[in-house]
Amino acid sequence: MLGPHSVGSAESEARLAQRAIVRIAEERVASPGFAEDFASSTEDEDVVSKQLSLTFLVSTMIDAAMPHLRTLDDGAALKSALGVALKCGLKASETAKWSELIQETEKKLVESFVDTETDEVLQVCGLEGLRSAMRHMNGVYVEGMTMSSHPGLSQREVEVAMKKFYSSLFSPPIPTFEDTIKDPELRKIARSKTAQRVVDVYRDLYEAIASNKGGYGDLSFLGHDPDQVKTLLSL
User: Are 124 and 155 in contact (CB under 8 A)?
Assistant: First the structure.
């Protein structure tokens, strides 16, 4: 329903739904005949009443926009529309299910941003090569194999990567997400999740390197344990 209009107007489906909900809700408040949904006395009138009710109109717009919710700005637009509808007479209980759906979609979008940015951070700070090499080794692992003998995980390669990682801790390359996430609370969550993902990768590498499976003769290059890294990356 909203798709063709979105293409024609260059606005997202969520933005169109927001505009429609806000305009309808405010028009209803301004029109005495729609001051509140009336109680019908016949079945036919009841059907018409439901179709003209604010609940039905908001539900129709939100349901049409949700499959096309691709950005956090779109989520904010729909939440803003629900807020206006609430002020214009929509019951709080009616907004609960839509608010929950929007929040769940926002969480998925944040997770997607975090996945992308974590890969970028690992690349910048030097751990991506080790993570990729260890994943490959785990896929072909046989009893007796050591990390130090696997391509990309030699003593020299691990030392160089760890040195680069430790240097990055003085100015952690954790993204601010200011360009992609407008909500400060969601932005804080995304930064925290990204930092934790980096810590988790470091912990996996640290524990594997220090284990019997590592096969490294000198572990002096492990300058920080995982908990120290977590502290240094705390935001």
Answer: no
